[in-house]
Design brief:
alpha/beta; Rossmann fold; 8-stranded mixed β-sheet
Amino acid sequence: MDVDGVLLSVENLCVSFFTQACPEPGLSRAKSRGRGNGVVPAVQDVSFSIKKGQTFALLGESGCGKTTAALAIMRLLPAGQGRVVQGKIFFEGQNLLALSEKQMRLIRGSKISMVFQEPATSLNPLFSVGDQIAEAIELHQNKAADQAWEDAVALLRKVGIADPERRVLEYPHRLSGGMQQRVMIAMAISCKPSLLIADEPTTALDTTVQAQILDLLDDLQKQNGMTILLITHNLGIGLQRADNIAVMYASRLVEIADSRQLFAQPHHPYTQGLLQSLPPVGCAVNPLQAIPGTVPETLHLPGGCKFHPRCRAGCADMRCRKIEPALREIQPGRWTACWRAD
């Protein structure tokens, strides 16, 4: 992949969750007791790069490993449960996985910020939204409490919350879902990060508010020159908002392409199925084409290509059933993990 102007580069990332029968390396079996009975490969051999100023979408169904990959980048995997077992994550030339926790804390929140999926569960119900925004400013910018509070008010105004002087005193439960998400975005951009990870930022919001939040992210990106990693299961959002898209299925990347190329000519059967399931605009309503079967359980993944049991092509080629296809560049800027992509 092109390294010129790359802000974030993820190389061969593998993340697993360890349970009772297979304890995490470094933990005794006794300490791992009660966590289940196996190893869950949540992310397998994931590689992608994001250039400065881009919006890069990580797209796929729920449970495919999108959020786990983002938490690995932030070094926020649950302690004693999930662990990066292989790979490197380079941000501004530094391997984040090689940094100490103290060094990572200086980057997390200041240079890399994350908007989490459920703002209602991410915001602390015991503190006002102003206190929570000001705390991040005091921590990362070493500003006095009064100045941090003024900045919190200005940030709420910047993300489009009316009457910010009053809203800054509100507790999260007094705000709507859309306003809570705006507060999360205000907190995330408080230190003008180079990279913003937006994990399903429009989940549980109605269509109008979804558009407002996405427009807000676009505006903030232009103003601050941010790079955005957008995590979503909504194909339409990815195609409309992202420069490049990486499609995940069952813990692996199956396709990476420019969003326009992906929409015009998807190569992987899974991506083709996703596009065929979208209702056409301006045409007669016909029954939508569903992808047959269901997503496999992570503990019981099929051999070979993980998508082959659901592939409409029938997988007559024995390679599909026996050998896992590697993600390879089949055209300039087009990466696909499929034996039939040629």
